[in-house]
Design a protein that fits this description.
By secondary structure, this protein is α+β, with helices and mostly antiparallel strands. Helices cover 39% and strands 26% of the residues. The protein has 2 domains: 55 residues, no CATH class; 45 residues, no CATH class. The protein is built from 2 helices and 4 strands. Strand 3 and strand 4 form a beta hairpin.
């Protein structure tokens, strides 16, 4: 995820966000605020999914449910469906939102 006003790096399981407007003494702008919000939302979603993975090592369904819910939140959309390929067919494995699965 490319940013213009911040640097975002994950190393050794630690996320580091650096303000990157030295020519403006790192003064805040609306864009910087939005990029910080987006980076933090991404990290929050990632940590939630990883937490569920650690609590459900043998059950994949809670992980898939967390992924679609996080995707909806991070992308700002109302409905997300995750389908997995099984041979030539696509099977719905997780859904988040109010639309009926048969309509999506």
């Amino acid at each position: 995820m490319p940013f213009e006003t911040i640097l975002f790096d994950i190393s050794d399981r630690v996320a580091c966000i650096t303000l990157n407007r030295p020519e403006k003494l790192n003064s805040f702008t609306t864009r910087m605020h939005e990029e910080l919000r987006e980076a933090l939302e991404h990290q929050t979603a990632t940590s939630e999914v990883l937490g569920i993975i650690s609590r459900s090592p043998t059950d994949v369904q809670p992980v898939l449910d967390a992924i679609v819910e996080s995707a909806a939140r991070v992308c700002g959309i109302d409905d997300v469906m995750l389908r997995l390929r099984s041979g030539n067919a696509m099977t719905v494995r997780a859904h988040f939102g109010s639309l009926a699965v048969g309509l999506v």
